[in-house]
Fold:
Amino acid sequence: MSSKFSELARELDRVASNVSLRKGTALFRSGDALSGVFVIRKGAVTLSVDNEKSFYPPRTLGPGEIVGLPATLTGHYSLTARVTEDSDLAFIPGSRVVEMLETSPHLCMIAMRLMSEEIGRVRTALKDAPPLDHSE
Structure:
């Protein structure tokens, strides 16, 4: 993670509450309304699509990474996030994240860059995915 992204994670962590979760716990599921954003302090969280035929491969995030940020724009989570090893997380309510991004153009630009990289990963996965079979 670049130092700019680390700066956003540090700022979010600064206003967060502590959450410790056991392996297997879902932070949120695809379609859930935004509750907040998580910064991983210790442990791992895997993001995935709730569909076995998904073209989007699961992605595991570790310490210093931010989970759930795109939902601050859309109001709901598009992926499912599950703790894949016992973890210590920082939790920031969605309204607080939105407030931080609205009042700091610098942090907002970092967040937009993070989200554009995620869109790039999804586009690459789509491009590399086999064509859909609509006959089923």
Remarks:
- The longest strand covers residues 80-93.
- Residues 3-126 form a domain with the Jelly Rolls fold (CATH 2.60.120.10).
- Residues 105-128 form the longest helix (24 residues).
